[in-house]
Amino acid sequence: MKCRPFGKLDWQASALGFGCMRLPTLDGESGAIDEDQAAPMLRRAIEDGVNYIDTAWSYHREQSEVFVGKVLAQGYREKVRLATKMPSWLVNTRDDMDRFLDTQLERLQTDHIDFYLLHSLNARHWENYLKLNIFEWAERKMAQGKFRYLGFSFHDSYEVFESILNGYDNWTFCQIQYNYMDINYQAGQRGLLAAADKGLAVVVMEPLRGGRLAKNPPPPAVAEVFARSGRDWTPANWALQWVWNQPEVSLLLSGMSTMEQVEQNLVSAGQSSPNSLTPEDLAVIEQARLAREALAPIPCTHCEYCLPCPSGVAIPSVFEIYNEALMYDELRRGQNAYKFDIKDENKADCCVECGTCETLCPQQIEIITWLKKAHAYLTPTGS
Ligand SMILES: NC(=O)c1ccc[n+]([C@@H]2O[C@H](COP(=O)([O-])OP(=O)(O)OC[C@H]3O[C@@H](n4cnc5c(N)ncnc54)[C@H](OP(=O)(O)O)[C@@H]3O)[C@@H](O)[C@H]2O)c1
């Protein structure tokens, strides 16, 4: 297994970490981990040198930590560094934090967690933690040996990322969503470089955008780009190598859901190293990115000049869901996102065609027409 520096620590992390959020399950039931399949996958990865295991309170309906604890108790705990996360959205008091951490230690069958993250930090959770004086609490817990290093995972804008990064001097690491389609999304490449520059280890999550970049075959326009490359790489390997190519990345987590994926990603990790892609390889990935982006029909940049819509339509969010559904050929996922993430009073059919948005849009998008198309596409027939 290739290993890489982990921020300022005198420890090398395996290039591939195991993300325990997408384990195989029974009957598609998230809380029912198929242990007969999942345990050999985790053991296989560790035996091949994976030394970073990532889980969280909430994964698999709170069963991921229990599962990881069971497997590690079979002689694997000392071989790995264990990361888990405080469920930020459930924390209201100091007592909550104590309760979560103590329960996690029990579930994980360990006396300490190596890397403890404040899960899914955004502006709201960050403010709440500051009110609760999180760092005083965390330093006490580290002094008690309950966990060794503090970090955070992140989902918000770059500006929020920067303020969190600069809001505490003793972060050891952070975890960001990063892949060749998300260079400028959330923390993005700027966040990667800023964190590494401050000496933090950077753990990459969603390197395959949750599996979307691994679909094989990919959309024809992307398949053509890869076919012309002269490399016999799967779409997953292209995406993973792109992340590993960047020296600021400490490791990437993959949420592997089959043994075949574990085997493939172990091979990929073995091929990886910083700055190993050629200019031609990087050009292939750039073309693949552009080919995917070209599948998104609405040139919305999420600048939000169109907001607030007098009728309450969440214009950029609706367009984002529509574009993503077409880029990744995921009608069902798009329909679910539209149903559950956009409230009825913000859906596209609230548009009264006043046209205010169209006068404000710097991209001159025909918003009214696209809202109708998006609503029709994202609403299942008969509902
Ligand atoms: N802290 C946070 O807020 C947060 C958020 C997200 C993730 N995470 C962590 O980061 C980890 C990684 O994120 P992720 O799971 O989204 O990673 P990812 O690598 O982007 O997506 C994982 C999915 O990619 C597919 N896949 C993996 N290897 C493949 C291969 N060789 N060939 C084809 N498909 C492959 C599988 O999809 P199919 O199952 O569809 O085959 C798998 O479930 C998570 O498991 C979790 O531990 C943390």
Residues in helix, %: 40-55%
Oligomer: single chain
* CATH class membership of the largest domain: Alpha Beta
Question: Poorly predicted ranges (pLDDT <50, ≥5 residues)?
Answer: none
Q: Give the names of the bound compounds.
A: NADP nicotinamide-adenine-dinucleotide phosphate
Could you name the key traits of this structure?
alpha/beta, TIM Barrel, globular, eight-stranded parallel β-barrel, 383 residues, binds NADP nicotinamide-adenine-dinucleotide phosphate, 2 domains, 16 helices
Summed up:
This protein has 383 residues and is α/β, with parallel strands linked by helices. Helix content is 43%, strand content 13%.
How would you characterize the overall build of this protein?
By secondary structure, the chain is of the alpha/beta class. It folds into 2 domains: 3-286, NADP-dependent oxidoreductase domain (TIM Barrel, Alpha-Beta Barrel); 315-378, no CATH class. It has helices at 35-47, 59-62, 64-72, 94-107, 123-131, 134-143, 158-165, 188-197, 220-227, 235-244, 259-271, 279-294, 315-327, 331-341, 356-360, 367-378, and strands at 3-5, 12-14, 16-19, 52-54, 81-86, 113-121, 147-154, 173-177, 201-205, 251-254. Strands 3-4-5-6-7-8-9-10 form an 8-stranded parallel barrel, surrounded by 6 helices. It has a two-stranded antiparallel ribbon with strand order 1-2. Helix 4 (94-107) links the parallel strand 5 (81-86) and strand 6 (113-121). The chain is globular and about 60 Å long. The mean pLDDT is 96. Residues 19-22, 54, 119-120, 153, 155, 175, 205-211, 214, 236, 253-257, 261, 264-265 line the site of NADP nicotinamide-adenine-dinucleotide phosphate.
